[in-house]
UniProtKB/TrEMBL annotation:
It holds the Pfam family F420_ligase. InterPro entries: F420-0_g-glutamyl_ligase (IPR008225), F420-0_gamma-glut_ligase-dom (IPR002847). The keyword Cytoplasm does not apply. It is an enzyme of class 6 (ligase). It comes from Methermicoccus shengliensis. It comes from the Archaea. The lineage of its organism: Archaea, Methanobacteriati, Methanobacteriota, Stenosarchaea group, Methanomicrobia. Its EC number is 6.3.2.31. This is Coenzyme F420-0:L-glutamate ligase.
Length: 263
C-alpha cells in the first residue's frame, strides 16, 4: 500500500483571484498534473481570501456585548464582534481565544483567521465550504478533464494537546465519513461504534506540507487513497452536542469538583 502527497506552492493569493487559474499556475510550476482519483486539498484561508472574505478590523462596528467579551478574554472588540456575528454560540474562553460553535463544529474564534492576513485584517471562514468544494471539483473537471475529490481544510487543536492538526471543513466527490460498524477487528470482534473520519485524515496528512506559516502551499494533491470518487455530495456529518464525548461530558454529564481526580 502506498499513498503520495504533492504540495503545490503558489504566488500570494489576493482578493478577486481565480483560484483555478492559481491552481493551474502552481501545477505548471511544479511540473505536476491532476489525475483521475486524486483528492485535492485546498486551504480554506487561501480560498476565502480569493473570494474576498478579508475584513479590515477598523471598519467593524462594535456592539456592547463584543466590548464586554473582548475585555473578559483580552480580544480586540472588533474581532470579538466578528466572532459573535459568525458563530452560533460562544461557550467560554481563555486569554486571546474563545471557544465557539459554528456549523456544528467547535472551533476557536469562529474559525476567523488572523494569521496569513494583511496587517489590521482578518479572513472570515467560508459560508458554505461544501458548496465551494463542489464548485472547485466541477471547475477542475471542466478545465482539466479529470475526476477528483476536493477537501477544503483548516487547522484545529485537540483538547489538552499542544499543536494543530488539519481538519476538513468542506468535502466533495467522496464520502467524508466511512461507517466501519460491523467490520471485524484483528480478533474477530465486530466494531460497534467506529466511523472513520476519512476527509479529516486526508486534511491532516496534507497539513504536513501546507504548514501554518509562510510555506505558501495552498494546495496538496493526495494520490493513491483508493477511495471511491464520484458525484457524491454528503458533506461531513456532525453530531448533537449532548452526544459528543467532550461537549456532552462538560455540559451535560459533568461530575462535581470534589469527585475529580486530577494528576
Amino acid at each position: 500500500m502506498r499513498m503520495e502527497l504533492i504540495g503545490l506552492k503558489s504566488r500570494l493569493i489576493r482578493p478577486g483571484d481565480d483560484v483555478l487559474e492559481v491552481l493551474e499556475g502552481a501545477l505548471e510550476r511544479e511540473g505536476a498534473a491532476l489525475e483521475d482519483g486524486d483528492v485535492l486539498v485546498v486551504s480554506e484561508c487561501a480560498l476565502a481570501t480569493a473570494m474576498g472574505r478579508v475584513v479590515h478590523l477598523q471598519d467593524v462596528k462594535v456592539g456592547r456585548r463584543a466590548m464586554e467579551l473582548g475585555r473578559r478574554y483580552c480580544i480586540s472588540p472588533e474581532l470579538m464582534q466578528l466572532i459573535l456575528e459568525h458563530s452560533k454560540m460562544v461557550l467560554g474562553g481563555i486569554e486571546g481565544y474563545v471557544l465557539t460553535l459554528r456549523d456544528g463544529f467547535l472551533c476557536p474564534n469562529a474559525g476567523i483567521d488572523s494569521s496569513n492576513a494583511p496587517d489590521g485584517c482578518v479572513v472570515l471562514p467560508l459560508d458554505d465550504p461544501h458548496a465551494e468544494a463542489r464548485s472547485l471539483r466541477e471547475g477542475v473537471g471542466k478545465r482539466m478533464g479529470v475526476r477528483i475529490g476536493v477537501v477544503i481544510s483548516d487547522s484545529r487543536t485537540h483538547p489538552l494537546r499542544l499543536g494543530c492538526v488539519g481538519i476538513a471543513v468542506g468535502v466533495s466527490g467522496f464520502r467524508g465519513i466511512v461507517d466501519a460498524r460491523g467490520q471485524c477487528d484483528l480478533f474477530g470482534k465486530k466494531l460497534a461504534i467506529t466511523r472513520k473520519a476519512l476527509a479529516d485524515n486526508i486534511a491532516s496528512a496534507a497539513q504536513l506540507l501546507m504548514g501554518e506559516g509562510d510555506e505558501g502551499v495552498p494546495f496538496v494533491i493526495v494520490r493513491g487513497t483508493g477511495i471511491e470518487i464520484g458525484d457524491i455530495e454528503e458533506g461531513i456529518e456532525t453530531i448533537a452536542p449532548q452526544e459528543c464525548l467532550y461537549f456532552g461530558s462538560l455540559y451535560f454529564g459533568s461530575i462535581s469538583p470534589s469527585e475529580l481526580e486530577l494528576p
